[in-house]
Write a structure and sequence with these properties.
Helices cover about 60% and strands about 10% of the residues. It is of the alpha+beta class. Strands 1-11-10-9-8-7-6-5-4-3-2 form an 11-stranded antiparallel beta sheet. The two termini are about 30 Å apart.
């Protein structure tokens, strides 16, 4: 199996074998895989009804439609023979969305008061109140999207049950949003060289803070484990960009020389472009983008597949271990084909994407062992009373 070996299974030293023999028997680590038995036709029936109701209600029915989709997907996905159950409600999503709108409205009111009473309507000559508001929402939207991701995960887990036990998520969404924003900013400042640090430190709270009832999850990942592989990917990525640029410029130069066009002629065309020049420039840009994509995407899929295998193998739930052997080709199918499905169907391919994603998880995830049901109790924390308002506003993707 092509994935990093999990750190939970370390060889027992010879001096410890006597003690190990007297210890309780090792937990059963019999492997199993999840089962997804949903049907694309049934999923599309729910989704198309959702789309029609959205059109009739100007989008306000989407909270109930999303809930119906989740109930179908959860109920057709099983681990160790037991299906998941989703107990969220559409009105909870509506309340969360309205509260997020109130938050943005309060922010706009605060900016308006500052505009009127502090700056006396003239903070910047070329900016108006609406421009300042739009810019500020764009700026705060970046960290709030991270907050929304964590809060949305907390809501979905709190409405999910397995074997009658409710899942939940501890930790602060605001703390996660702040650390994610800071790490992303530092990564940009270092030309993406901190990507392993960002990946591991953002995955840690999303995994280690999960609870199945009173059973805690754990994560043993470290950025140092994957830095060597990432550095190789990083410089291969740079090499691919350089090769792509050389090929593009060589192609452009060869085409220009064959047409007998001089440098002065190109300058005149760029200074006074006509419709033909614009069309040619757009075609060149599209061709260059496709070429870059063809060279870069296999490398990115290779890295993403490795990272996913690593994160899964470093996660556990009590005595239950996880592993996956997802390959670069399968990651390509997940990342590229799903994107093309959504793009070419103008968004109507979402059910197909969700269906393909759950099938991939069911086929490629291995679960070793089973939790001790007698040792797991129902959590006393019932989770948030509303959900995903910030996620609706700042990251409207998926279910």
């Amino acid at each position: 199996m092509n994935h990093p070996s999990p750190p939970w299974q370390q060889p027992v030293a010879a001096a410890e074998q006597t003690v190990a023999a007297a210890a309780p028997p090792a937990p059963d680590l019999t492997p199993s895989r999840p089962v997804y038995d949903g049907r694309l036709g049934e999923l599309y029936a729910i989704y198309l009804r959702h789309v029609v109701l959205m059109l009739l209600t100007l989008g306000w029915s989407r909270f109930w439609g999303r809930t119906r989709l989740r109930r179908y997907l959860w109920s057709h996905f099983a681990i160790l023979g037991d299906r998941f159950e989703y107990r969220g409600r559409g009105r909870e999503l509506l309340i969360g969305f309205l509260l997020a709108l109130v938050l943005i409205a309060a922010w706009g009111g605060l900016l308006w008061l500052v505009w009127i009473y502090v700056f006396h309507e003239k903070p910047v000559a070329s900016f108006g109140a609406f421009d300042i508001f739009s810019l500020s929402v764009a700026l705060i939207g970046f960290p709030l999207a991270y907050v929304g991701h964590y809060a949305g995960l907390r809501y979905r887990l709190s409405r999910t049950r397995w074997r009658g036990i409710r899942l939940w998520l501890v930790g602060s969404a605001w703390s996660y949003g702040g650390s994610a924003t800071l790490l992303t900013f530092l990564n940009l400042c270092t030309a993406q060289l901190l990507t392993p640090v960002v990946s591991v430190n953002l995955a840690r709270p999303r995994i280690a803070n999960v609870r199945l009832g009173t059973l805690p999850f754990a994560f043993a990942g470290s950025a140092g484990d994957i830095y060597g592989r990432y550095i190789g990917y990083y410089f291969l990525n740079i090499m691919a960009w350089v090769i792509a640029l050389v090929v593009v410029f060589a192609a452009i130069g060869g085409t220009v020389s064959e047409l007998g066009v001089e440098a002065d002629d190109i300058g005149d065309l760029l200074a006074h472009p006509d419709a033909r020049t614009i069309v040619i420039a757009i075609a060149i840009a599209i061709g260059a983008y496709i070429l870059f994509g063809l060279l870069i995407l296999p490398l990115r899929c290779w890295w993403q597949a490795y990272l996913f295998r690593y994160l899964v193998s470093r996660s556990r739930a009590g005595n239950v271990l996880f592993a996956t052997a997802i390959s670069t080709r399968q990651m390509w199918g997940f990342m590229v084909l799903n994107y093309l499905i959504v793009l070419l169907t103008l968004g109507l391919g979402w059910p197909w994407v969700m269906h393909r994603t759950l099938r991939l998880i069911a086929n490629e995830l291995w679960v070793y062992g089973a939790p001790d049901g007698a040792a797991i109790a129902q959590p006393t924390n019932r989770g948030p009373g509303f959900g995903e308002g910030l996620l609706d506003l700042f990251d409207v993707t998926g279910v």
